[in-house]
């Protein structure tokens, strides 16, 4: 029998949707559902060049870029992934 309710539902299985689901799970919120029309990263996320942008026009976006880069530099430890995520700076 399918489950009929969740604490949260995320629509979209790209980088934003899957990242949100991951961060919620890290904080103990595991009763969620990610809905994707095709397969995870099937849209723009799966077709991007995977560049890390550092030039921004606002202080908030610049701060987010710096904090994100710190996570990227230690992504295997952050996620518990046992292989290289392939960051090449």
Task: Report what the structure shows.
With 89 residues, the protein is mostly helical. The protein has two domains: 1-49, no CATH class; 52-83, no CATH class. The chain is built from four helices and two strands, in the order E-H-E-H-H-H. It has helices at 15-26, 44-47, 59-73, 75-79; strands at 8-11, 32-35. Strands 1-2 form a two-stranded parallel sheet. Helix 1 links the parallel strand 1 (8-11) and strand 2 (32-35). It is globular. The protein starts with 7 loop residues before the first strand and ends in a 10-residue tail after the last helix. The mean pLDDT is 92.
Helical residues, percent:
40-55%
Strand content: 5-15%
Largest sheet at a glance?
2 strands, parallel
**What ranges have pLDDT less than 50 throughout 5 or more consecutive residues?**
none
Q: Which structural class is indicated by helix and strand composition? A: mainly alpha
**Rg, nearest Å:** 15 Å
Shape: globular
Number of discrete domains = 2
Distance between the amino and carboxyl termini: 47 Å
DSSP helical segment count: 4
Q: Element order, helices and strands?
A: EHEHHH
* Strand ordering within the main sheet: 1-2
Arithmetic mean pLDDT: 92
Beta strands, count: 2
